[in-house]
Every structure is written in structure tokens, then in C-alpha cells.
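Predict both folds.
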Amino acid sequence: MTAPAPSGVLYGLIADATVWPLFFPPSVHVEQLDFDGTRERLRMWAVAGDRISSWVSHRRLDVGQRQVEFRQERPSAPVETMTGLWTVEPLGDGSRVTLEHAFTVVGDAPADAAWTERVTRANSRAQLQRLAWLAERWTRLDDLVMSFEDTVRVNVPAELVFDFLYRAGDWPDDLAGTRPLTVQEDTPGIQVLALDGRSATGGEAVRISFPAAGRLVHKHTRTSGPLAAYTGEWTIEPQPGAGLDVTVRHDVLLNDDAALDQDAARRACDEVGRAGRRLLEHAVRHASDAVRVL
């Protein structure tokens, strides 16, 4: 892929994998496990065809050569091994980005090899296409990315708040429009939600839960209207003394029209924020009601 942006800018977008869920369509969530400035371990979740795959990736970052090597430590079946290399090279007034993969599948099964190649190519092209899109707008990225959050402090058990947020299929009728149409959970802790596509947040979302940490992250995989991408996170943090803080965070990537139309951008972000606050209020009310019953 060639793009009209400096190689350092593109390398930075590739090297900082924590921004991938917002910037790259296939990426759902990334957790940085270890990092010493050059080598890192990441836990990654991504859309792979019709499933959500997860693996641990080792990466070596070489800022001088503008390269990022990667190796999957624990690939998702049917992949047995997966390695690769990102390379960014200066090219005239822009840059060339190359993404390489090498893989094997369990038992060398032809059908599994064909599926892995097809999914890897599709995801690679999606990443490179979005990287080119970002490169064309690299001087305006600060205007295209918006982050905001709301927090409430409450004196209720954290597990009751998390329970409400997690059981999205049981949300009450007055959350219509926010409540998913269906919730599919083939892998414990990973949910695929079908949503009312008329909202700004689109028609589908993937959620990953971390109950022990009191966290629930989400990526809306089909957005609409002003939002080019939307990710978010719920966190439940016990506070010293008593009580806990419940926070809902939103990160959005605006499309060009929304960036130029500030009213459209504000309306979209207001809609996202209102939905988050309504869920926050219901989660707190649910926990408070449960405590009174007990």
C-alpha cells in the first residue's frame, strides 16, 4: 500500500497496537501484557471471517528500520503457527507499507489452509485500506478522534453492577434502542450483539468481559452515519474507604462529513453519551434494588 504520509506517522500507527481497535476494522481489542521499549507481548482479539479469534502475539519494534516483526504465541485454531512483518519505507512525498504473513495450520488440512489464507488476506487488506485512509488525513486526526466518559460513585456491590452490564439480553424494555436484538456467546466472555441499526452506533457490536478486573470492552463492528468507528469500555473500580466508581468511556472516529459538520459530530457523540448514561443509571438502579431485596 502506498500513502501520502511520512513513514514515521505510519510506523507510529502500526507500532501502537492499543489504537488498532479504533483504527483498524478487524481489530476488536488489544491488551498490552509486557513491553520493554523494543519487545512486547499483546493479547489480541479480532474478527476472523464469521468468528472472533484471540491470540497472544510477540512483537519486536525497530523504529530505525521502520519494521515490526510479530509471532503468535498461542494462535486460534486452525492456525498452528503465524509470523509476519510490517515494513514502512519512504517513497517520494509519501510511504510504502508492506504487510507479510507466513503460517501453518494443524495437520496441513487444505480446507483450513484455504480458510486461513482467505481470512488473513481479507483482514490485511482491511488494515492497509484503513491505514491509507488515515494517511490521507494524518494532519487532521486530532479532529477526527474524540474520547469522552462519564463516572458515578455508588455504594453497591461491584458484582451486581457488572452482572447488569454483562446480561445485555435481559435489559429492560425502557432501554429499547440500546438493548440488543440478540446476544450470541459461543465463547464464554465474548459476546456478539445484533443492534438496532438505526442508531449512530450501527448494527453489530462485539463485547469482551473481564469479570475479575471489573471491565467490559466493546467494539461496534458495523457503524453508520457520522461514525467511522466506535469503541468503548466499562470499568468498575472500588475506592478507598467505601463505594466504587463506575465509568463508561467512549472513543469515536468520525468520518469526513462529520468532521466538517460540527453539529453532526456533536449530535452523534451526544447520542452515544446519552445511551451510555442511561445504561449507567439502570446498572446502578439494578444493583441498588437487588441490595434492598437482600
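Second protein follows, with its predicted C-alpha cells after the sequence.
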Amino acid sequence: MSLRIYNTLTREKEIFQSLEPGKVKMYVCGPTVYDYIHIGNARPAIFFDVVRRYLESSDYEVNYVVNFTDVDDKLIRKAEQLGTTVPEVAERFIQAFNANIDGLGIHKATLNPRVTDHMDEIIAFIQSLVDGGHAYENGGDVFFRTSTFPDYGKLSHQNMDELQLGIRIGVDERKESGQDFVLWKAAKPGEIKWDSPWGAGRPGWHIECSAMARKYLGDTLDIHGGGHDLQFPHHECEIAQSESVTGKPLANYWMHNGYININNEKMSKSLGNGITVQEMLTRIKPAVIRYFMLSAHYRSPLNFSDETIAQAENSVERILNSVSNVKHRLSLAVSEPDAAALDQLKERVAAIREQFKAKMDDDFNTPDAITAMFELVSEANLLLQRPVVSQAELELLLTAFQDFDRVLGLLETVDELLDADIDALIVQRTEARTNKDWKRADEIRDQLSALGIVLEDTPQGIRWRRK
């Protein structure tokens, strides 16, 4: 495999080589489950789903872990607002998250560990840091001592002096240094808490991922991923904690996706311009959302607007119509192909496959991989213009579409059962027309139109396509 990945740690593209042949250990930071996930959460969810799919299509067994942060200040505040408990808030929004990723055609992770199920591992991890002199307790809180980890800042490429200058005035006086960060928080009255050697409390945000990643994937991961905003402080702190305990690299490849803007403005709570996945799925088809997310390189910013979504809708329609037309012609295809024509098509499709692979191997360049998919669309459209087409030619194209889509996940978000329903309605309409039951025929046409289906009369019979 010639896959190259841009490693945030080194700021270079590096040839990918897994720790264990044929297996990949990948950890991606998941949501803090205090609310519905938004469009910014959807980008890493979709992109790393594609990374996982591509690795699997390249014959890797991928152990893919995405955590749930189910205890946090935000969950505590949400529970107070709703008059319920933190576990009930977490369960509600974990269920919502699972429904959203199903709606987006995202394959479920190998494992979704929850923080609250791993208190023993988290406390033991913190104790190891304390025992090694990397952490200290003050007032029931435990802090990581950054001065013991000289490489602190290596992921975000900041040095200790720069980080010190960035510390706000009024830093917690219990810290030895403004750069030190919390590992364990003493519980305030009425808060959810767990017993620990330092008193009742709960873990800080950063320590959770270090403990869970180590439990399920070992001391060193192949790939650690997340949004650009997690580089610092979250991933930087993970590195410091984990490598202080193990003495080994936390991950060999660090991957971070870019930001999403809304109408050319940064998405933020202060601007009130966030969009939830729940909301998007009520008005935008999953295939369109996936296409939009993959239409720019994952490290580049992405702008969400009515215009970019309309462009994505048009592009998805072209792909779906082409695949639908190929499937339709299969029932009318001849069994004996023209050998020369078939060989030529095989050569062109093989070249397109190589193009797709080359682009995905180049740091998961999904925009150019999608371009390869449109090369298939062009081949299909040319083929379908011929009056006689063989089954072998159509199946060659259809297989290529399906192989590409196992990675991109555009076609599979379309309900395939709908095809059979549409065909059945068309048969009913044909029978109604034969029986001169024009009213019934018109009703069926209207029903299909409401489903976004356009009927067209062709020399080969009635065919349909999606609007």
C-alpha cells in the first residue's frame, strides 16, 4: 500500500505503515454528550468514517474507537437546567448521536467507551502520573506538572515560553505553573462524583482519552484523529500524560480536519449560527451532506451555505441518475458483448480505478476521488447512448461505482428498497394505461412525482430517474 498521511506532528506527508501488519488501531475523539451534535461534529464523523472505510477496502482490519464524554461541566449544567441527572442527559444524547450517525450513513465504531464506565482506569492512570512526579494534588484537585514533559507543545508547534505568554491573568493559584492542567476535579456540593485517593470528584477532560485509548488500543496508536480545534490543548495534553506514563509515542500519525464556516463566518455560539445534524437531516438528504463534507480536502476549511448545498445536491443527482440508468439498462442488455468494446471499457475503468486509488492514497484526497467517480458517470453516459449494450459492460461500471461507494458512502444512504417500490408502481401504471384507466395512471404518476421520480418514455420502454 502506498498510502501517505499528513502527520500534524511532523507537518509532513508520511508513508503509512501500521504497527501490526494488516491491522490499524485508530482513536478519534467523540462528542461531549450534553446536546445534539452540530455540523462541526459531523465533519470528523464523516471524514474518519471514510478513512476507516478506505483502510478496510485496502484489506486492513480496523479497530476504531470513538469515545463518549458523559460527565463534564456542560452535562452537569444541562442536568440542572432539565431537572434531571447527568447519566440521564448522557443517555438521551448518546441515543440522539447514534440516530444521527445512522442517518448520515456512518458505520458504527468498533467501540464507543464512556468515561463513567472507566473511572478505575482513569484513577489508576492519574496515580501513575502522581507516583512518577508528573502530577500533584492541591485542594482536592490533581494537576499535571508540564515542567516534567519538555516536549509539551510539540503537536501544536508551540514552545513553553509561547504557551506561558498565552496564559490568562488570574490563573489558578494552586497550580505550580500556568501551563499545568487539571487531571482530577474535586466535587462541588451536589455534583456527581466518584471516590479517589485525592477525595471525591471527577476526571478532567484530557485524561479520559489517554486512559480509554490505552485500555482498548495499547500504549501506541496507529492513528489519532479529531477536529483542528483539538490540537491544543486537548491532544497536546493527551500526549504529555500518555507519554509520561508509557515512555512511548501516543500515536504514530496525528490527523486533524479543518473548520466549517457558516455563510463564510466561523461557526460559534456567540454568533448563534450553529446547525445541528438533527436539523440538517430534516431538509438535506444524507448523500448530499456526505458529498458536501467530502467535496473539500479534509484539512481545508469548508463553507456551508445554500449555494454549496445546492451544488452538492446537483452533483449527487448526477451520480444517482447515472447509477440508476445503468441498473435500468441491465434488464434490457444483451448477453453477448462486443469483445473489443468490452476490452476498451475495461482499460478505461481500470485507469479510473487507479486514479481513485492514487487520490485516496494521497492523504485521503476525497475531492479528487469524487472526480474519478464522475469519470465513471461520463463512461456510463457514453455507454448508455448506444442502442445495444451488453450486460458485462454495465456490470463492469456498476461494480466500479459500488467499489468507490464502499469508501465514500454516497449511494448506500439512498434507500435501495425504494427502487423495487418504484418499479412496482411503474408496472401498475403501465397496466392502468393498458386498461385505459387514465385516472389511476395519473394518480401513480403524481405519486411518483411527489417522491421526486421523473418518468421518461424511451425506445427501450419507460425509464425513471430521480429529480
